[in-house]
Fold this protein.
Amino acid sequence: VQLQASGGGLVQAGGSLRLSCAASGGTISSYNMAWFRQIPGKERKFVATITWGGSRPYYADSVKGRFTISRDNAKNMVYLQMNSLKPEDTAVYYCAADYRGVADLDSMLEYDYWGQGTLVTVSS
């Protein structure tokens, strides 16, 4: 599976952005799909994931109530709607896919495929 993230950009604090992740080379219906983010020089951190069975979402505490992850299996797409953005949300955002995992969905090690990243910059 190849993943392509897009939708990043520059936004003021309090604003919104919607990230998209397009998958090709296979269907995402059997994959947990996640977003991680990384500040240069720091480790990549979990943001949100949505399960392959039941489409249940899980979020990092830092984004809960502000971000919404969703998926459209028919279009092979995953989205991250980001509202009430804060300067500390500034990072490169990566989408990732995990084949039918059932545990540790907030761990980078669980994910088999990664997109190239899209930069989100939130100005204060």
Observations:
- The radius of gyration is 13 Å.
- The mean pLDDT is 96.
- The chain is about 0% helix and 50% strand.
